[in-house]
Design goal:
Strand order of the largest sheet: 3-2-1-4
Structural class: mainly beta
Number of helices: 1
CATH superfamily: RNA polymerase II/Efflux pump adaptor protein, barrel-sandwich hybrid domain
Protein name: Molybdopterin-binding protein
Strand content: over 45%
CATH class: Mainly Beta
CATH topology: OB fold (Dihydrolipoamide Acetyltransferase, E2P)
Radius of gyration: 13 Å
GO biological process, one term: molybdate ion transport
Keywords: Molybdenum
Largest sheet: 4 strands, antiparallel
Organism: Amaricoccus macauensis
Number of strands: 4
Length: 68
């Protein structure tokens, strides 16, 4: 897989929760869980299931920082 995004995190899918049109996919990346919101169609086409290896690909133009 070759992509332009530079932030690609390999991990294991720990949860897939389907909604009406959007799914939330949780990927454990070395003990940190990253959640992606993608279409149900994408979940089906990619064959995403708990226990499978997947990549969290992060493409962002900026990062926000907050404090308490």
């Amino acid at each position: 897989m070759r992509i332009s995004a530079r932030n690609s995190l390999k991990g294991k899918i720990v949860e897939v929760t389907k909604g009406a049109t959007t799914s939330h996919v949780k990927i454990d990346v070395g003990g940190t869980v990253v959640t992606a919101a993608i279409t149900n169609t994408s979940v089906d086409e990619l064959g995403l299931e708990v226990g499978k290896t997947a990549y969290a690909v992060i493409k962002a133009s900026d990062v926000m920082v907050g404090v308490d």
